[in-house]
Design brief:
The chain is mainly α and 194 residues long. The protein contains 8 helices and no strands.
């Protein structure tokens, strides 16, 4: 089933190369953008005001890190070749990576970030979720992953976000309080100039 869906998508995209190039751009720059946007939430939090966006920034990045760590454990326990290596018929847009296909690191990190932000700020989180979904779908469209790899990545990212936001929140809050002691005086100067 996984191969059939992958093959159908890949065949369609091979006939519509513009779609492959579009999603190659989305996956490449979207992955950077979602990480930068998560860190940027810290900068948007006015010094001395509420900590919601600071908590979201730290939780999002911690969720992505946890998801990538979990992926490494899974990939070492069960290695699955990339679809283009296993079947030698795929059209690939972008880099031909040879690391484990299962689960998708891009989908895991993107959903770890998006779900963490969503749990702390539903409006901002919805924007992050749209970008995460585009990144995840894009991994299949560009030919790098089977749909199952992406679904597993989404599950890992979502569970990582739930663990960080629901279980590790006291640790995250302590970290935010410690870091803001350093950053708030600097950011206060920038906020006053704005």
């Amino acid at each position: 089933m996984d191969w059939r869906v992958y093959h159908a998508v890949n065949h369609f995209v091979a006939q519509h190369a513009w779609l492959g190039r579009l999603f190659e751009w989305i996956v490449t720059y979207g992955a950077v953008a979602i990480g930068v946007a998560a860190a940027g939430l810290w900068l948007l939090a006015r010094p001395g005001a509420g900590r919601k966006w600071k908590l979201a920034a730290v939780s999002a990045l911690a969720s992505a890190a946890l998801a990538l760590l979990v992926n490494q454990v899974i990939a070492h326990a069960w290695h699955r070749d990339r679809p283009f290596l296993a079947h030698h018929v795929a059209r690939i847009f972008g880099a031909r990576k040879t690391d484990a296909s299962f689960p998708s690191d891009h989908a895991s990190a993107a959903f770890g970030i998006a779900v963490a932000v969503l749990l702390l700020d539903p409006v901002a989180g919805a924007c992050f979720l749209v970008l995460a979904l585009l990144i995840a779908v894009g991994r299949v469209v560009v030919g790098e992953h089977y749909p199952g790899d992406v679904l597993a990545g989404i599950a890992v990212g979502t569970l990582s976000a739930l663990v960080v936001v629901r279980l590790a929140r006291p640790v995250v809050a302590l970290l935010v309080r410690l870091v803001e002691r350093v950053t708030d005086p600097i950011l206060a100067i920038a906020w006053r100039r704005l």
